[in-house]
Amino acid sequence: MMRRAKLCAWGLGLLALTAAPALAEDFVVVESSTPTIAAGAQIASGSAVTVPDKARVVLLAASGQIVTLNGPFQGVPAATGGAGGDSRLLTAVASLVHANTQESGSVGAVRAADVQWRAATIKAPHDVFAIDASDGGDACLDDPEHAMLTRNPSDPAGSMTIHAMDGDATAKVEWPASTARMPWPKELKLADGATYVIEPPGQASAAMTTVHLLPAAPAQSDIERVKQLTDAGCTDQAKLLLGVIIKAAQK
Prior knowledge:
26% of the residues lie in helices and 27% in strands. The chain is α+β, with helices and mostly antiparallel strands. The protein folds into two domains: 23-104, no CATH class; 116-219, Sandwich (Immunoglobulin-like). The chain has a five-stranded mixed β-sheet with strand order 10-16-15-12-13, with no helix packed on it. Strands 3-2-5-6 form a four-stranded antiparallel β-sheet, covered by helices on one side. The protein starts with a helix and ends with a helix.
């Protein structure tokens, strides 16, 4: 009888060890449909949150997990699995979301980027690592050997010319109609900090882009890539990647 009692106690202990309890941790609000909870706000571990009926709040945990709260909800948000993570990551994401909310003038859902065509052409997280040939700006690359160009698919087809600002190097890209992505021309070397002028077909204005090469070692998660993009000044790409992460988590 004593042995059976010990076995039962051992079994209960094993269940306690193997269960995945909900653990409280720090969060940042990445999307909110209620004015009482601002996008970009940080929520400390153990803090209670109230989400009104029919409202929705999406949180990013310090561990990188996305937690969606659908109203009515009142309580302490929690992520399943292990707590922890880098608080600097939350700070970077909070700053990114807050700045995006100020630009948009509303608390609404995080926009992937101000350029809506670009958000529409992204099918996977890696798609954000492309050089914007339509609007230029800072472009972060994680794999320069396989760099891609992207542009609005509605732009006219034709020959695109790319000039390197630090020399006479020039390359052309024949862009088909209704195509959003093309490989970067191999004959034009990509360098960290280098600037390129892109002359699109059928348009009088040119785009200028500055390339930033991210560290060769990959980030441990897509959320950490968001911080890397933000730190490098590639905020549009950071917004795009954050939007992809949120969308994927809600499927």
